[in-house]
Design brief:
It is built from 23 helices and 11 strands. It has 519 residues and is α+β, with helices and mostly antiparallel strands. The protein is globular.
Length: 519
């Protein structure tokens, strides 16, 4: 192996001077998950789900950047050609960390570290680097196309003969996709024949990436077959989700997922979250997570759900609603995760208000992600650096876990419509997601304070939740507007400072716990 100083990388590839400062900040944690309690069918299903996750990882990277997979292949070839030096090994690690060729730097900039096009807000689900204004100009001329262009599971393309020819060829090659979307072939022919010429058109994800989605669907179907004798409800969900991916419609799988009763395993798979769409906030991106039920935390969650109506009725809002205490909620250890499934510390799905109305929602909290000593020590170090010594013991792993728990439950509480009865996402538009998350952060702290007054949590428990709610606002760099959680956490920190619940003194930030309920 050549010493790093002797390796000359081609233009566009970052060298160690730029990669190492980022990688030196990376903490690698290995989680030991005991699968000994799983049956043979469940173990076979896990193997198929991991295979599905690997295929989905490629798809997730492709949706993020149109040159991602080619850049990764070129980097792997370069790594071998140069004799596997540390410089290219670092670039491969940086690619894995960022799930693509765009790095988040220590200054919170989004920069390409391989020879690819710069970051684009619409990622690869819109024409590369298109602006929202250009899309709106088109939609103003063709308002009939808005719902389809901005559908959560369509890829927007520029109308060119080559693009249309490719998509029509896909539908001929895979007639099952044409059959699952009646009228799609006619739509594409109409776009081609439009007298004014439609500048943009859209196709479903399954048509944009047919081979990858068929591969993922096949693994899910085989996982369903493997686990059917041991967990029929999980098998039903996996079978329906495999079809959902081909039909670009989550409803059947979401209904089976929310309403089903699973034994040991749970799986989150599909295109759900829309945060990465910085143009319109409508396009969903792919993720997969395999989860194993953690019994102690799940039992505590079940006990606390009986207080939901009391918390809802105590919220300082004008209108209250009846909430069910029978929420599907559990604590889980992550077995494996891919794509957008690698990031969350909890899932609450579905997001579609229509599906929520029909079937409700389900909450899965990632216990091992939050209580592992290594990651917790890193956030605790940030806490100790900013906070006054008297508050150092207040941040605990279980407090952080409970704060996340009640954030997710907070989505069930508080207002969900405006005064006219319209869903808030309709009223608030592109700001709906971040305001919903902000509401849930506030509800989390409020709920745990209320549970403390009710005797369900000790004063120490409550203070640990308050500490966790403050922690997120202690940002090392200014968040980007495209980063919803860091943005809302900073909003909360500033609010608590203005409200007097926090104050800055010579020895660090102090918490006025008496003022926190009012804040």
């Amino acid at each position: 192996m050549l010493p790093p100083a002797e390796v000359r990388l081609p233009r566009g590839y970052w060298g160690p001077a730029r990669t190492r400062p980022i990688l030196d900040k990376v903490l690698t944690t290995r989680y030991d998950v005991d699968l000994g309690g799983l049956g043979p069918g469940e173990l076979s299903a896990v193997a198929e789900l991991v295979a599905a996750g690997r295929a989905l990882q490629d798809l997730a990277e492709e949706t993020e950047h149109h040159q991602a997979l080619r850049a990764r292949r070129n980097l792997q070839v370069l790594h071998e050609q140069l004799g596997r030096p540390a410089a290219t090994a670092d670039l491969l690690e940086l690619y894995e960390l960022n799930q693509g060729p765009i790095a988040t730097t220590l200054d919170n900039e989004l920069l390409p570290f391989l020879p690819v096009d710069p970051y684009a807000q619409g990622r690869n689900v819109y024409p590369w680097a298109i602006t929202a204004d250009e899309v709106e100009v088109f939609l103003a001329k063709r308002p009939d196309r808005r719902a389809w262009i901005l559908d959560s599971h369509t890829v927007v393309r520029r109308t060119t003969p080559a693009a249309l020819k490719r998509d029509l060829a896909t539908l001929r090659r895979y007639p099952v996709l044409a059959g699952l979307d009646p009228g799609l072939v006619e739509y594409l022919h109409a776009v081609a024949a439009a007298p004014q010429g439609d500048q943009l058109y859209a196709v479903p994800y399954s048509v944009a990436w047919p081979e990858r989605i068929l591969d993922i669907a096949g693994h899910l179907h085989r996982a369903a077959s493997a686990v059917g004798g041991e967990d029929p409800d999980l098998a039903t969900f996996l079978r329906l989700r495999s079809r959902d991916l081909l039909a670009d419609d989550n409803e059947a799988g979401d209904a089976a997922w929310v309403r089903g009763t699973f034994n040991h395993l749970d799986v989150v798979v599909g295109a759900h979250e829309t945060y990465d769409d910085e143009l319109f906030g409508t396009k969903a991106f792919f993720g997969l997570a395999i989860l194993l039920r953690e019994s102690t935390g799940t039992s505590e969650l079940g006990d606390r759900m009986h207080y939901l109506q009391g918390i809802e009725d105590a919220l300082p809002i004008e209108r209250h609603r009846t909430v069910s205490s029978d929420i599907p909620v559990g604590s889980y250890d992550v077995v494996a995760a891919f794509g957008q499934g690698t990031g969350p510390i909890a899932e609450i799905l579905p997001n579609d208000p229509v599906l929520i109305r029909k079937y409700g929602r389900k909450i899965l909290l990632r216990h091992n992600f939050q209580v592992a000593p290594g990651p917790f020590e890193r956030i605790a170090a940030r806490w100790r650096a900013a906070m006054a010594p008297i508050h150092h013991p207040e941040l605990t792993p279980e407090g952080a876990f409970r704060q996340t728990t009640w954030h997710e439950v907070g989505h069930y509480l508080g207002p969900d419509t405006d005064h006219a009865g319209r869903p808030l996402d309709t009223t608030l538009g592109e700001d709906a997601a971040i305001l919903e998350e902000l509401k849930s952060e506030l509800v989390s702290a409020f709920a745990c304070l209320w549970l403390g007054d009710a005797g369900a949590y000790t004063p120490e428990d409550v203070r640990s939740v308050v500490a966790a709610s403050i922690l997120g606002g202690l940002r090392p760099v200014r968040p980007l507007r495209a980063q919803p959680y860091p943005t809302l956490w900073l909003m909360l920190l500033n609010h608590h400072l203005e409200a007097g619940a926090l104050r800055i003194e010579a020895d660090g930030i102090h918490i006025d716990h008496a003022s926190m309920p009012r804040a």
